[in-house]
Amino acid sequence: MASDPRSSSPPASAVSASIGEVAYLTVTAVTSVGAFLRWGPPKDVLLPYSEQSFRPEVGKRVLVKLYEDDQQRPVASMRLERFLQDEAWSLSQGDQVTLVVAERTDLGMKVVVNHAYWGLVYQDDLTQPLRRGQGLTGFVKRRREDGRLDISLLPPGESRLDVVGEKVLQALRESGGYLPLGDKSSAQEIKARLGVSKSAYKQAIGRLYKRELITIEPLAIRLQPGVAATLMQ
């Protein structure tokens, strides 16, 4: 006799999330009442047929919102639009937020913000590859007049330049202390190599130059010899 998926105990490394959160969970079984998702001990969570936007297969992962039904039982829903709001009046520019990646659009990457709102990371602000279901930290770049959120993966102000500077130093370490991107390099080249805008790159390397960590050429930057010996260890 087949065991009830609800009584299964996933391994300690299984993905878990709390009620009220959006999570990317693996389908463990499909039954007459719906699909069961690996949620964590002590049991899997039900994704009813009525809460499915398509029929998931065992072994596949689905992006869901975890909530309690009328009988206070934990259930999952793929119909995120029922739970997430477009308008985020409680958030302001510069706020640090938690993100869950939802899907790619023509403009960039649609994300879930603080498990409660929709947000958008524009293509120009994608500083790293993102995958569906990935959780990460972001920042409110702008709250538009209609309450919708534009999201950045980099912190605002000086902290943003520090992050870009670290990316530059990491790239220099990985390329032996020489990076073929300078003041005169195109924005496309910089974006393709580092995932940041030319403006942010120029500001960051200017700060590194003032700290005497690099030298700047029209089409390249180099680690200072003494710095290179230290960083390349």
Descriptive notes:
There is one protein chain. The protein is α+β, with helices and mostly antiparallel strands and 233 residues long. The chain has 3 domains: 5-82, OB fold (Dihydrolipoamide Acetyltransferase, E2P); 96-152, OB fold (Dihydrolipoamide Acetyltransferase, E2P); 157-231, Winged helix-like DNA-binding domain superfamily/Winged helix DNA-binding domain (Arc Repressor Mutant, subunit A, Orthogonal Bundle). The chain has helices spanning 157-174, 187-194, 198-210, 225-231, and strands at residues 22-31, 34-37, 45-48, 61-68, 74-77, 96-104, 108-113, 117-122, 135-143, 149-152, 178-179, 214-217, 220-223. The strands form 3 sheets. It has a 5-stranded antiparallel beta sheet with strand order 3-2-1-4-5, with no helix packed on it. Strands 6-7-8-10-9 form a 5-stranded mixed barrel. A 3-stranded antiparallel beta sheet has the order 11-13-12. A hairpin with a 2-residue loop joins β1 (22-31) and β2. α1 (157-174) crosses α3. Residues 1-15 have low confidence and may be disordered.
Distance between the termini: 60 Å
Rounded to an integer in angstroms, the radius of gyration calculated over CA atoms is 22 Å
Structural class: alpha+beta
Q: Encode the helix/strand succession as letters.
A: EEEEEEEEEEHEHHEEH
